[in-house]
Amino acid sequence: MATRFDPFQELDRLFGQVLANDRAATSMPMDLYRSGDHYVLHVDLPGADPGSIDVSVEDRVLTVRAQRSPRTEQDVQWLAKERPSGTYARQLAVGAGLALDHIEATYTDGVLTLSIPVADEAKPRKIEVQHGTRPAIEATTPA
Q1: What is the mean pLDDT of the chain?
Q2: Which of 43, 60, 66, 22 minimizes the C-alpha distance to 114?
Q3: By C-alpha distance, which of 50, 45, 5, 38 is closest to 114?
Q4: Which of 25, 54, 111, 140 has the fewest CB atoms within 10 Å, counting from its CB?
Q5: Rounded Cα gap, residues 126 and 140, in angstroms
Q6: Closest to 88 in 3D by CA, of 111, 120, 65
Q7: Is the pLDDT of residue 120 over 90?
Q8: What is the pLDDT of residues 18-28, one digit of tens each?
Q9: d(C-alpha 103, C-alpha 72), whole Å
Q10: What is the DSSP letter of 22?
């Protein structure tokens, strides 16, 4: 049986795999919405090591970082290795009006959920209008 060998096909496959892993390792899909007086952020981190998840805020920049460790089986022949490993990181610039010191974070089923409350000073409020008589304006004469 004759086998056709194309060295460029294998090189192209390996190159595509490296690029796909690089893109996937830096990709961190998210959903963001407002619910009442909180913003809710869901970030997909499938397979991330729970102890490696780090959420920080500095200069109104929210940073989410996580690590997925590579598989380290010995004496195996990989037939496909498409799941990325390495560090995931994403930064979001956040505006004023959020209580960044009260962020709550949970990690369940591969999804990191952040609950970010709106700061009290940024919440809408109603201003009560006083009803009554107008203050009297007294006329003064220039000296």
Answers
A1: 80
A2: 43
A3: 38
A4: 140
A5: 37
A6: 65
A7: no
A8: 555 444 445 78
A9: 35
A10: H
Place of tokens 């004759």: 2
**Neighbour count for residue 132 (Cβ, 10 Å):** 5
Domains of the chain, CATH where assigned: 27-70+85-122 (2.60.40.790)
Neighbours of 17 (CB within 10 A): 13
Average pLDDT score over residue span 23-49: 84
What digits encode the pLDDT tens for the residues 45-98? 988 889 999 999 998 899 999 998 887 788 888 888 888 888 889 999 888 888
Any idea which residue has 């004023």 for tokens?
A: 96
How far is Cα 143 from Cα 141, in angstroms, rounded to an integer? Answer: 6
Pairing of strands 61-68, 86-93: antiparallel
Cβ distance 18 to 32 under 8 Å? no
Q: Which residues pair with 34 in a beta bridge?
A: 39
Q: Note the pTM of the prediction, 2 decimals.
A: 0.66
